[in-house]
Amino acid sequence: MLPGNGTQFSGFVLLGFSEKPGQEPLIFGCFLFMYVITVFGNLLIILAVSIDAHLHTPMYFFLSNLSFSDICFTSTIVPKTLVNILTQSKVITYGDCMTQMFFFILFAGLDVYLLTAMAYDRFVAICHPLHYMVIMNPRLCRLLVLGSWVTNILNSFLQIALTLQMSFCAPYEVPHFFCEEKIMVQLACSDTFSNDIGVYFGVVLLGGGPLPAILYSYSKIVISVCGISSAQGKYKAFSTCASHLSVISLFYCSGLGVYLGYAVSNNSMTTSIASVMYTVITPMLNPFIYSLRNKDIKAGLKKVFGVAV
Prior knowledge:
Blueprint: E1 12-14, H1 24-51, H2 58-75, H3 78-87, E2 91-92, H4 94-127, H5 132-135, H6 138-163, E3 173-174, H7 181-187, H8 193-208, H9 210-226, H10 231-264, H11 268-291, H12 295-304
Parallel strand pairs: 1-3
Antiparallel strand pairs: 1-2
Helix pairs in contact: 1-2, 1-3, 1-11, 1-12, 2-4, 2-11, 4-6, 4-9, 4-10, 6-8, 10-11
């Protein structure tokens, strides 16, 4: 629903970095650099997994899907931010705002579910190694990815449907650099009870199931690894989980920090800067985390560039 007070409505104004307009060229350069690195790095991961037959395993299947999700996740936000800085216009239309919110919810949730699937994959690989290929068969892997897409598409439609029922009143200023659901609910001048319930439902959907599943998987992994007698065996087992644990820690800690920031701070600049961590920096770092100490990915990347392995 459009504004509720009869004022001429042309769109929302994104105020994310407006407190320091003199730094806009620096912000533009940083965002452009991080976006290019994110797209290029994750695209290389996808190409490496596609080209190298040795990477046609469940773990790398989920990784390539995570890389694709990260590209889409960042592309939902950064290009519009770059255009606004370049044109010195902070306006985003109502339709663009709702579209951005839909895909932000979709790909953020998809990241969570893919990370959960990867945690399950590591659990099976370490705790049930003899049955790994039987359990983690191609059909199950495809179903896990498909289920992640379907669940998060339905959740995104639900959240947007509830948001479309809200009315917004002038001055239509969004204290952020993109249309984030929780902030949009706070800006509404109509009753938001159903939207608040929707937000809590989304939090439960993304945290109530995936996070306990990840914690359970890694608790079992730790118990299993502690039962290995040799130090080399323990190191090898933990090393296969190190990259995934790093990505999970980055994603959840940064996301949790942002939402805790909403509760303790009303400073839009602080919230916007904190949001950059999990919307831009984390997707940019994922390819580096998964490739720097991973011999299989390095070999795959060499094949992408035509280097003899």
